[in-house]
Amino acid sequence: ELKVEQNPLFLSMQEGKNYTIYCNYSTTSDRLYWYRQDPGKSLESLFVLLSNGAVKQEGRLMASLDTKARLSTLHITAAVHDLSATYFCAVRSNMRFGAGTRLTVKP
Amino acid sequence: SQTIHQWPATLVQPVGSPLSLECTVEGTSNPNLYWYRQAAGRGLQLLFYSVGIGQISSEVPQNLSASRPQDRQFILSSKKLLLSDSGFYLCAWTTGNQPQHFGDGTRLSIL
Fold first, then answer.
1. What is the three-class DSSP state of A64?
2. CB-based contact (8 Å) between B48 and chain A?
3. Mutate to test the interface with B, among A2, A30, A93, A95 (most CBs of B within 10 A)
4. Helix (H) / strand (E) containing A13
5. Cβ neighbours for B64, distance < 8 A, ≥ 6 positions apart
6. How many CA within 13 A on the CB side of residue B3?
7. Would you write out chain A's pLDDT as a tens digit for each of its 107 residues?
């Protein structure tokens, strides 16, 4: 059975700091997705990673995929309060989601 | 452009009552459709997915069922709700390598 593990599950950061969220999965997949969820809201897509070594960047967020290590990372650069949300990774195999990382960015 | 409609947004139901949540997609053909449940502060649990009309795969045995009577319509049902059915229900669609597109969700409270 496919397992998707994210860590950390909770992350409290100071504004301006950098940090990385990790997403490990247990079976082969060449597609990985990152989503953002604001409190009480639905999910919105952030990144689609479709091949080994794929790297996507949008603003202060950068996502990468290593299919050999079965690992994706979401790197946050110079965090700002607006990035506070829960971030999920999902693996293509019928879209299994990690448990999510709840990010809080403090002034 | 593609859109997804999910309703109702909020629902309060007594234990033992039936349930019907509907999701429709516009602007695309033959999408893969999904129902998820999210407990408060938790991740997404895949309940059902469908790759075509009448084709439903169940991920978790429970008292819920799903149907896809039309290409772009996905319905989540229950004959008798349990307290444990409370949660935030999300419908989503995708095609090809696209990310999933989620509806706004239904917040279901069971009393």
1. strand
2. no
3. A95
4. strand A10-14
5. B19, B47, B48, B76, B77, B78, B85
6. 3
7. 789 999 999 999 999 999 999 999 998 877 899 999 999 999 999 999 998 899 999 999 999 999 999 999 999 999 999 999 999 999 986 788 999 999 999 98
